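Late entry, written up from scratch paper. The run itself happened at the end of the previous shift, but nothing got recorded in the book at the time, so transcribing now.
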Amino acid sequence: MQGSSQYNFVFLAGLLFSVRVMVRGVERRKSRGDPTVRTRWAMLAGALTLSGFVGSVLVRLDLSTGRAAAWSFAAAVIGAVSARILVRRAVAMPVSDHDFDPRFELQGVPAIVIQPIPSNGDGLVRLPAGAGEVHESMLRARSIDGTPIAIGVEVGVDRVDDGVAVVEAWSAIEARL
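Output as recorded:
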């Protein structure tokens, strides 16, 4: 059973490297130009995951240690090559076929109401620095559902229509989540 636990460890290491690939991605931008696709972490994840899985299954089936290791090595090669091919093909796919709608550029950005928003009227919100700007910025705002919003209430931006932010109180957003 000890051999199986070693392969289980290899399998779990492969899963952890897979998570690293998912979180950090495979594209790296050099100082200028198009990003470079690096597949080494994905290949390592594929090799470890498939090798650990195959080795663990074969040891549990009482295959000899040498044969289990040989099949596990073959699975590692297949896992690495498969990961390289899959990552290259996935990166080559276009993300979407439609153009970005600039009205939704600030969607989800938190803001603070600094001038009350009347029902079916405009007020004023303050957006934090980093929301498309270097410094804090002010933007006219309207409630998404026409309800009034008081000063100091934290809101989330849904979209910006003709220079007016359409906002909703964070309490309403949190209630939905």
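The chain has a mean pLDDT of 85.
(Scratch paper discarded after transcription.)
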